[in-house]
Design a protein that fits this description.
- The complex is a heterodimer of chains A (about 270) and B (about 220).
- Chain A is mostly helical and about 270 residues long.
- Chain A has one domain: MetI-like fold (Orthogonal Bundle).
- Chain A contains 14 helices and 2 strands; from the N terminus they run H-H-H-H-H-H-E-E-H-H-H-H-H-H-H-H.
- In chain A, strands 1-2 form a two-stranded antiparallel ribbon.
- In chain A, helix 1 crosses helix 14 and helix 3 packs across helix 11.
- By secondary structure, chain B is α/β, with parallel strands linked by helices.
- Chain B has a domain of about 150 residues: 3-Layer(aba) Sandwich (Rossmann fold).
- In chain B, about 35% of the residues lie in helices and about 25% in strands.
- Chain B has a 6-stranded mixed β-sheet, with helices on both faces. In chain B, strands 2-1-4-5 form a 4-stranded antiparallel β-sheet, covered by helices on one side.
- Chain B is globular and about 45 Å long.
- Chain B starts with a strand and ends with a strand.
- Classes of the chains: A mainly alpha (about 270), B alpha/beta (about 220).
- At the A-B interface, helix 9 and helix 10 of A face strand 6 and helix 2 of B.
Chain lengths: ~270, ~220
């Protein structure tokens, strides 16, 4: 929008900018309200809590694992949906969107039912995992449940995002790659993936951020056990429900800081080196 | 030599029926036809990118009808060029050589040869395709298609977005390429003047059939 413009053009741009400005202002005011509500003492007190540090570590680990898994599953899924026509495609698309439209608690309840109450050969999934690992591993109320919930929701967003990325890449580049000696898989790896790399970083970022904010299904399926399944989003809830409003706000600000740091780093990476 | 025998294929409302064609090695051949008459579909079928209903395709006495695009050893430059934007100019030129498993020194030598042939020496060391003009992109796409010395080079309206001077320059370059690299070229164009100047032979795609000559 740097060309010569008339008064009406400038008014149009100004009106759109005003809408954007108001939304940005709303978010900034929310952050400022949080920041003004607590002091350094609250932040220090919050950070000195060993349970919160464990929650912080688990959050970083689970969000990263979930985001990586989400991208790995979303890449082939989004590619197939963007390139192929097949019977029942619309139905598959709707099914992939279920984690986006489903109330979060419902997803947690569904996982709980699937893992504990649906039996295959007389055993539930929970029992099977327990038996196979000699009781060493489980799913419900374990770290696996945290990752499973985060991954399921993040993947749905990733597929949507990556599908748009693949649809913007001309299928003709793949056709040319085929004539130059590539197989379909070779064209995907050598041509499509490099062209989609910024989109992939962006999808990873979205998956990571989505996982960070996940709470509803975790509450039901993973629980909030300090030092075990407590993540930052559940830490906020835990403090809030026990009347520790200052603690809840301090953890919220910590979450926002972590999210901003990760998102900014990934955005810089995608602009620069990637 | 390239030969089509009774080639038939359909794509949507486009039906090509019993196409016969013969192109001599080292010649530049022009394919004319109205928009939507099936020129691009025919080129894609020759590349193996579209299934045909019936007929045969021969290339230097070898039948290539059932070969995959990779096995056909044909070069294809689509109208939008489809350059690999994420790769450097050098990587674009070396793409087919790398896949074919050429050694590093052989790739370097062939890339240099192509750069000289297509006057790309000054551009080849750039890191990306950003800033390449239409003509430069066109030459790079040609070089990428020529890297493995294809038997047939298929060009889909290669000069569509270029100015008249550049069209003339690239046209002469194509004629030189056909002779020098002994590659058979089949080029789609809408310009009758260009067809007259450049073509060794002319073909028209009309109502799903191929006819020889300009008119």
């Amino acid at each position: 929008m740097s060309s010569l413009s008339s008064t009406s053009d400038r008014l149009f741009t100004a009106a759109l900018s005003a809408v954007l400005g108001m939304y940005v202002l709303l978010l900034l005011v929310l952050l400022l309200a949080d920041a003004s509500f607590i002091g350094w003492g609250d932040l220090r007190h919050c950070w000195e809590d060993p349970a919160l540090r464990a929650s912080f570590r688990l959050t970083l680990m689970s969000c990263t694992v979930s985001a990586v898994l989400a991208v790995l599953v979303a890449l082939p899924s989004a590619y197939i949906l963007s390139r192929c026509r097949f019977f029942g495609k619309s139905l598959v698309e709707v099914i992939c969107d279920i984690p986006i439209i489903l109330p979060p608690l419902v997803l947690g309840v569904s996982f709980l039912i699937l893992v504990n109450h649906v039996r295959f050969g007389g055993l539930s999934l929970e029992d099977t995992v327990g038996r196979l690992s000699g009781g060493a591993f489980g799913i419900t109320f374990q770290v696996a449940a945290v990752i499973l919930c985060q991954f399921t929701v993040a993947t749905a967003y990733c597929i949507r995002s990556l599908r748009g990325v693949f649809e913007e890449i001309s299928p003709r580049t793949e056709s040319v790659a085929l004539t130059l000696g590539c197989s379909r898989a070779g064209a995907f790896c050598r041509v499509v993936l490099p062209e989609a790399r910024r989109g992939i970083v962006s999808a990873f970022t979205m998956a990571w951020a989505r996982s960070l904010g996940e709470f509803g299904p975790l509450l039901v399926f993973a629980g909030i056990t300090p030092f075990k399944t407590e993540v930052l989003s559940s830490s906020v809830y835990l403090r809030f429900t026990t009347g520790d409003l200052h603690g809840a706000v301090a953890v919220s600000l910590l979450m926002i800081s972590v999210a901003l740091a990760v998102l900014l780093t990934l955005r810089l990476l995608s602009r620069g080196r990637v | 030599m390239i030969r089509l025998e009774k080639l038939s294929l359909s794509l949507g409302s486009c039906h090509l029926r019993d196409l016969d064609l013969e192109l001599e090695r080292g010649t530049l051949n022009i394919l004319l036809g109205r928009s939507g008459c099936g020129k691009t579909t025919l080129l894609e079928a020759l590349c193996g990118l579209r299934k045909i209903d019936s007929g045969r395709i021969w290339c230097d006495d070898e039948e290539i009808t059932s070969l995959t695009p990779a096995q056909r050893r044909l070069g294809y430059v689509p109208q939008d060029l489809a350059l690999f934007q994420a790769l450097s100019p050098r990587a674009n030129l070396a793409f087919a050589l790398d896949i074919a498993g050429w050694s590093r020194p052989a790739i370097t030598a062939r890339v240099q040869e192509l750069s000289a042939l297509l006057k790309l020496e000054a551009l080849i060391e750039r890191k990306s395709l950003v800033g390449f003009s239409g003509g430069e992109r066109q030459r790079l796409a040609l070089g990428r298609a020529l890297a493995l010395r294809p038997r047939l080079l298929l060009l889909d309206e290669p000069f569509a977005a270029l100015d008249p001077e550049l069209r003339q320059e690239l046209g002469s370059m194509l004629r030189q390429l056909a002779r020098q690299e002994q590659v058979t070229i089949l080029m789609v164009t809408h310009s009758r003047a260009e067809a007259e100047t450049l073509g060794d032979s002319h073909w028209r795609l009309e109502n799903g059939s191929l006819k020889t000559g300009l008119v």
